[in-house]
Amino acid sequence: MLIRLVILAALFGFLFGFDEGVIAGALPLITSTFEISASGEGFVTASVPLGAVGGAILAALWADSLGRRKVLIMCSVLFGIGAIASGLAQEEIALILARLLLGIAIGASALAAPMFLAELAPARHRGAIVSAFQLMITIGILVSYLIDLALEPLGAWRWMLALGAVPAFVSLIGIALSPESPRWLVMRGRREEAGSVIAAIQPDLDRKEVDHIVGDIAATHAGEPRTAPWSDFLSDHIRPLAIFAIAAFLLQQVSGINAVIYYAPTILGHAGFDGSSTQLTATVGIGIVNVVMTVVAMLFVDRLGRRPLFILGFIGSAVSLAVIAYAMNGQGSELATLALIGLFAYIAFFAVSLGPLPWLYMSELFPLAMRSRGMAMASVANWSCNFLVVFMFPVLVSYAGAAATFAVFCAFCVLGAVVAWLYAPETKGVSLEDLEQRELVAAQ
């Protein structure tokens, strides 16, 4: 049951990655079809993170009242409609609206799915299980790059976009047949149902152990409102957590990751790789590195811990981005190869650290009654910054050049390393309820 639910919830990460990555190969074809300007190109691409801002807000409003499962059902429907509408779009504005719809689905599921996974997972495996969401994002990106590579010679950008409806249908069937989060059930007073879900997820537990877990969850949240007021985020023990979660996502985005994901072929063109097929082939290589290193992150996040990986990720990303900026400042095949190596190294450090850890942190740090709203604040910061980076990237490159743009990303990663060293907490192996108690004690 646990494996099935993890795969299912992580499938929303696949949809997230597919609908993010597929635009990389489709965009040059779309631009020629609709004769889109540079700023229009930025907006078509950035419409997904813009829609995700609204999706995160909606998920915050509904995740506690409707439940994590129902929010994910609605996301599946929106993913399917958005993919089909993107493929059928006959003009630029229709495509933008369809991708805004996909963005809403991504923003809502990116909040609800990690929350669902964190609340299902045993403490000793929570890091790897929640990181499965990030792994599926990378797999979705890689699959979209492969589809782009296969369909680009045919100019079939509509099929590139519309194929996202297939995994959306699979996720809809799967989540409709799944149980609700046991912690949400306890929060709603449905303790017997919660016990049944926990027993199915952890069949090695006897009835007494299951009842103890349910009782521990209930006791930790006794007397709490089902959803805490926004003013509670100003309290002494929650405010630092909220600031850190938001900062983690802002620093993740200004490292430049989504500029690379959305514009990989364009970036490779600036690096000196000519020909769309060559650029897409190298882009697939980036996708493969992304997947492999995310698997490495899953293997080590519950062994080494969150904090060391977070610090290492920022330092490694900063060095890699410095190499990219240096290589793009000149010309020649050797520098083009150096830029590609730098891109591979950057993706590797990001995937093992900066990719999964902000999602994991935001699903762990907030108390149950504040989890959906706390995660929403972090998600809104994430998607707002994502939109700005993706929208501004082609404009910055056209005015300042690719080398200067990557130098800016490098500087932000240096800042991220300092912030991680000073403020990143360690949460490995601690139950969500024990984390809440630890935070309360630390604030007293």
TrEMBL record:
User: Which InterPro entries does the entry link to?
Assistant: MFS_dom (IPR020846), MFS_sugar_transport-like (IPR005828), MFS_trans_sf (IPR036259), Myo-inositol_Transporter (IPR050814), Sugar/inositol_transpt (IPR003663), Sugar_transporter_CS (IPR005829)
Pfam families given in the database record: Sugar_tr
Source species, domain of life: Bacteria
Q: What is its main location?
A: membrane
Regions that span the bilayer: 43-64, 71-90, 96-117, 129-147, 159-178, 241-264, 284-301, 308-329, 335-362, 374-393, 399-423
Its membrane topology, per UniProt?
A: Multi-pass membrane protein
Q: Domain Major facilitator superfamily (MFS) profile spans what residues?
A: 5-428
Would you identify the family this protein belongs to, as annotated?
Answer: Belongs to the major facilitator superfamily. Sugar transporter (TC 2.A.1.1) family.
Read off the PANTHER family from this record. PROTON MYO-INOSITOL COTRANSPORTER
What is the protein named?
Sugar porter family MFS transporter
Q: What is the lineage of its organism?
A: Bacteria, Pseudomonadati, Pseudomonadota, Alphaproteobacteria, Hyphomicrobiales
